Every structure is written in structure tokens, then in C-alpha cells.
Amino acid sequence: MAPPVLTSQHGWKVLLLPSGLQFHAQANKSLVLSALDAGIRLPNSCRSGACRTCLCQLRKGNIRYLIEWPGVTREEKAEGWILPCVAVAESDLVVEVQDVQVLK
Asked: What is the rounded CA–CA span in Å between residue 24 and residue 8?
């Protein structure tokens, strides 16, 4: 199966629940950094997939990781838990994340 193709020059749309905030995730850029570019701060600390500060739940869509094995268990992955500091969108996403801050 061929990989998905970006349908927007701005990247994939990411909807954050329960806040309702949205941003565009850029190709090959972590969700945390793409959110920052849009003036949204997601919880994060190490930005390397180790501390789990950014742990949140993917409700819809597909991601891939920038590192081989991020700090989530197989069971957590199966339940939809992701680490957005090392995750890249491969489709439009719906992500449940608490403590989101608007910077702009």
C-alpha cells in the first residue's frame, strides 16, 4: 500500500480535544513542534520520547515515530497512547490532550 500523500501544502489538520484547538502538522516535524509553530503549547519536557510528559491519546488518524522505540509500551500503543514530541502525522488527527496552552 502506498504511503498517504499530503493533501494540503500546510500539512495535516490536528484537532485537539477537549479544547477544540486546531493546527496543521508539518511533514517530518513532531506534533509538539508543529503545535508550537501555530502558537499552541502541548505538555512536553524532554522532546526525545523518554519522560512521557507529553503522553496523550490518539483518537483518530495515523502517526509514525521519529525514533525507533518511543517510551510507550506495546499495550499503550494498542490503546492509542502516543508521544507527540517524537510523533509525526501521516493523516489528519484527533488527539485528546490536557493542559494545552495558547501562546499567541
From this structure: 9
Structure-block grid coordinates of residue 96: 485528546
> Residue 84 has what pLDDT?
98
Q: How far apart are CA 30 and CA 103, in angstroms?
A: 18
| φ/ψ of residue 74, rounded to 5 | -60, -40
Contacts (Cβ under 8 Å, ≥6 apart) of 62:
4, 89, 90, 91, 93
The CATH classification number of 12-99 equals 3.10.20.30
Residue 102 grid coordinates:
495558547
* Residues 57-84 pLDDT 10s: 999 999 999 998 789 999 999 999 999 9
Per residue in 85-97, pLDDT (tens digit) is 999 999 999 999 9
Q: Residue 84 gets which letter from DSSP? A: T
Domain ranges of the chain: 12-99
Report strand pairing: 12-17 vs 93-96.
parallel
